[in-house]
UniProtKB/TrEMBL annotation:
The lineage of its organism: Eukaryota, Fungi, Dikarya, Ascomycota, Pezizomycotina. It comes from Colletotrichum scovillei. Residues 1-301 form the Protein kinase domain. This is non-specific serine/threonine protein kinase. Pfam families: Pkinase. It catalyses: L-threonyl-[protein] + ATP = O-phospho-L-threonyl-[protein] + ADP + H(+); L-seryl-[protein] + ATP = O-phospho-L-seryl-[protein] + ADP + H(+). The keyword Transferase applies. Its EC number is 2.7.11.1. It comes from the Eukaryota. PANTHER family: SERINE/THREONINE-PROTEIN KINASE NEK, SERINE_THREONINE-PROTEIN KINASE NEK11. The keyword DNA-binding does not apply.
Length: 325
């Protein structure tokens, strides 16, 4: 059988045929991204779907085995319901040890860069990712890797703005892990000064640590800006993420008490709301940190009686439907 024939006959965990269309955005030392097609014509006359294959080529044999074991649970049909802002695992290819997800956008994931991001966009990111975390937490899953490299911008048919989706739930710490010392994205309760270690069976992410990580994402969006690019090394991206951390002391120049405005994109009302969200997320004591559900309730107040109100109501209805499904 030729390579082309083999790439056209990839059988998934659910018994569905797929074809491999080639690489689109390998990120060295982190993950590989390949376009593919999913053939489900037995159930749908127009059942060819564009998908993306996501693999983690750096895994050793032990972690590959853990990935295969997790995949059977992560792609269960009973977990197909999810809000729009979660990148759902549609299926798994045992042969290539890759997940099958909806077709990821051409721009691939975000990367931090010095620039500007308007507060309105920061709030859009906050709303979308809080929807994702509220769903995951309500279903008992701590994400563990809420970082810019797992945030994907998608065009939306139902909204005039770009939507932001969260990828990678369920993989930390069994499959993926990060060194934690001096990593601002890691919540303070999971760090110990002077010690270099990784997530392990004894160090697991929590709902509270997810909220800290989201606060760091939003702070980076506000302070440094983002652009759409998946071509650079993910290792470099993580190093960039670690370079800047907000100073949480009152009155600090680069802190959040107050959140310093930028030269443009900081209108008074959305800027105050962005600052308030960060105050509630970046609380060193995890017991006092706000939950995703409570933060969504807070954001509803900001979105009522605005052009975003209809989208907000639809998002919340979709979230409730996903939780019931």
């Amino acid at each position: 059988m030729s390579h082309r024939e083999a790439s056209q006959n990839l059988l998934s965990l659910k018994g569905i045929l797929h074809s491999d269309e080639g690489p689109v955005g390998d990120e060295p030392d982190f993950r590989s991204l390949r376009d593919g097609r999913r053939y489900i014509t037995a159930r749908d006359a127009d059942g060819i779907r564009d998908v993306t294959f996501v693999g983690f080529p750096q895994l050793d044999a032990t972690r590959e085995e853990k990935l295969a074991n997790l995949a059977a649970d992560l792609v269960k049909p009973t977990k197909e319901a999810s809000p729009e802002t979660v990148v759902r695992y549609l299926d798994y290819l045992p042969k290539g040890k890759v997940f099958i997800v909806e077709r990821l956008p051409v721009q691939v994931s975000w990367r931090p860069v010095r620039g500007t991001t308007q507060d309105d966009i920061v709030l859009d990111v906050a709303w979308d990712l809080l929807l994702a975390l509220a769903y995951l937490h309500a279903t008992g899953t701590a994400h563990g890797d809420v970082r810019l490299h797992n945030v994907f911008p998608f065009p939306s048919e139902d909204s005039s703005r770009v939507r932001f989706k969260l990828f990678g739930h369920g993989l930390v710490p069994e499959v993926l892990s990060h060194n934690l010392r001096n990593d601002g994205y890691t919540a303070p309760e999971l760090r110990f000064p002077g010690k270099w270690y990784a997530f392990s069976a004894n160090t697991k992410p929590t709902f509270e640590s997810d909220i800290w990580m989201l606060g760091m994402v939003l702070w980076h969006c506000h302070r440094f800006g983002v652009y759409y690019d998946g071509r650079g090394s993910a290792r470099e991206r993580w190093e960039s993420d670690r370079l800047g951390q907000p100073d949480l002391t009152d009155g600090a120049e680069f802190g959040i008490h107050p959140l310093a405005p930028r030269g443009c994109g900081c209108e008074p009302s959305p800027h105050r709301f962005s600052e308030d969200l960060l105050h509630k997320m970046l609380i060193p004591d995890p017991k006092r940190r706000w939950t995703a559900a409570d933060l969504l309730e807070q954001m509803k107040m900001q979105r009522n009686y605005t052009p975003a109100e209809d989208d907000m109501k639809r998002d919340l209805a979709d979230l409730q439907a996903a939780l019931k499904g």
